[in-house]
Amino acid sequence: MHPNPTGKADFPYWLVAVIAIGLYLFWQVFTDDTYSKVLNTLRKGIWVTVYVTLIAYAMACLLGLVLALAALSRSIILRQIARFYIEIMRGVPIIVLLLYVAFVLAPGLVMAWNWAADLVGLDPIRTRDFSLLWRAIIALTLAYASFLAEVFRAGLQSVDIGQIEAAEALGLNRWQRFRHIVFPQALRTILPPLGNDFVAMLKDSSLVSVLGVTDVTQLGKVTAAGNFRYFETYNVVALVYLTMTISLSIALRRFEKRMRHRS
Fold first, then answer.
1. Cα-based angle 168, 169, 174 (whole degrees, multiple of 5)
2. DSSP conformational letter for 215
3. Domain holding 246: CATH number?
4. What is the domain range of residue 43?
């Protein structure tokens, strides 16, 4: 419950409404054959959505942290490279980046591989061997790394410089200062936005359907095109995404509260 301007806590009526709608849709799923068939069709897509989100987010976190460290580096070259990447990626819509990676970058990488393979005597590969699933994962990774880089950068800069100087005076090297002093304190600051970006990526993963990846959205489109029951089909699609995002949001809030209590 969140405080309102009067200082009192609001009762979460919105959550009651969401639960009521969700229970109604779940009841429809278990009692209506059309809803049940749609959900059975979407089950495979749920695992694809979760897989794409987890892999892309993990890779985006790693790349985002590297970019944040580069942006805070003493080297002007690294700082400018990081800023160039972040500004370019943040300025391109994710759906455009998906199409660019799938139909421009991926074929270019295949051509580069085949050129290098020809020099060393390896077998060439075809563009079709580069799966659309991994093209989508790479595109989401590149896009979200730019957003996560700013989150990591803000968190790292929030650490008191005095503590870093004290650790340096004690003889800790740069890696030890980062591991034991800087990152643990920055993590408390960046956890909420990291959680928000994870939920956002879960929703944005629906964009991979434009590449034909069989996620929840793509299977929903195929199912609706086959049975012409658009109302029931997209009700189930919406229910699946709402169940995942709301459950994840509640779990992240509880985790954040535990972290605050420990600190």
1. 15
2. S
3. 1.10.3720.10
4. 25-262
